[in-house]
Design goal:
Length: 347
């Protein structure tokens, strides 16, 4: 296996966003073992060695920064930086300062320390780029109000050097876990992403949805994976699918059904029905509505009209619908129906 068998982020970093501007969110997802983490870890270290540009490692929880130096540097040291050592020194119990061969090269912080990071924001004015690995956790568990914390951290580090807002790109990496993750929903990616999408551009962001066939073949050929060939997670690990859902759920259904509710999104009404088949129940969303059915849910506050309830007041119903979605038991008549449900179920 040669270096061409692994991920290369050169094209992604050369892309402009949908407005033709330099994006500040650079998102990279793929199947496992494709090499994206190794590539970006090497990239930020090389930028420091060559140009003294400091970087920041972003984690979700504060305990994750305790062994950040070893987690981040161990693999790439053996591959690319054998003459270098990286250590992390705790600072005020809030963040870590990263030191490469006795020279400060960056920091490690956690999203759940967003308020404290704000207090020390002046210390991070020399950060030139941020690396956020595993922004989609396989546990599918996120911080309360995580997007606000993410924005707060970036705002804290992007001011300084005489500027109210500096350009500080964030490299966001993860395996394909959940198309309903809060970042994809907030950026409108969930509504646009298709199974075979390679690159996707939006306002302020670019995304690469990669798939490394060499990594897939290597995993499938291992005796360990062959022993678990019937396991759902093992099959996900080597595929291009999302762990919790896939995008190929658009189809038409017919036959007897049970009406669940009506939802209203962007001024349009949709129905959700339950169908039964030999494998069990499946929910289906289309745009034929029973106007007499009493359970009506407005997806957004702007969708509120008389006789509709806001989705936040229907937590139990939404949680049940989300469970169906996350288990792959949802089907949609078209892309518009899928978009409505995705917005209804967002975290």
């Amino acid at each position: 296996m040669n270096k061409n068998d692994f991920y290369d982020g050169t094209k992604l970093l050369s892309m402009q966003d949908i407005d033709g501007q330099k994006p500040e969110l650079i998102i990279c997802t793929s199947n496992r073992s494709a090499g994206k983490t190794t590539w970006f870890n090497r990239y930020v270290v090389k930028k420091f060695i060559d140009k003294k540009e400091k970087f920041m490692l972003l984690y979700r929880y504060n305990y994750e920064i305790d062994d950040c130096a070893d987690k981040f540097f161990k693999d790439i040291k053996g591959l690319f930086f054998k003459d270098y050592d990286l250590i992390a020194k705790s600072k005020n119990g809030i963040y870590k300062e990263l030191i490469l061969n006795d020279v400060a090269c960056g920091y490690a912080v956690a999203l759940n320390s967003a308020d404290n990071i704000k207090k020390y924001s002046h210390l991070f004015s020399d950060v030139t780029r941020v690396l956020f690995d595993e922004f989609q956790p396989e546990t599918n568990t996120y911080l309360p109000d995580e997007i606000s914390k993410f924005i707060s951290v970036h705002t804290s580090i992007s001011r300084g050097q005489g500027l109210q807002s500096r350009y500080v790109p964030v490299f966001m990496l993860s395996n394909n876990v959940n198309i309903l993750n809060p970042y994809f929903v907030e950026l409108g990616i969930s509504e646009r992403l298709e199974k075979n999408t390679k690159f996707l551009r939006g306002r302020g962001f670019v995304l690469e949805q990669g798939f490394n066939e060499n990594a897939q073949n290597a995993q499938k050929s291992s005796r360990f994976m062959q022993a678990f060939s019937n396991n759902e997670y093992a099959n996900y690990s080597s595929s291009r699918s999302y762990l919790y859902n896939d995008t190929a759920f658009i189809e038409k259904m017919s036959g007897a059904s049970r009406y669940i509710c009506t939802i209203r999104f962007d001024g349009v009404e949709y129905s959700i029905r339950e169908y039964q088949n030999e494998k069990g129940s499946c929910l289906y969303c289309d745009n034929t509505v029973d106007s007499s059915f009493k359970l009506r849910i407005a997806v957004r506050s702007s969708d509120m009209i008389p006789t509709y309830q806001f989705r936040l007041s229907n937590d139990l119903t939404v949680c049940v619908l989300r469970r169906y979605f996350n288990n792959g038991w949802f089907r949609f008549k078209n892309l518009q129906c899928k978009s409505a449900v995705i917005n209804l179920l967002k975290y």
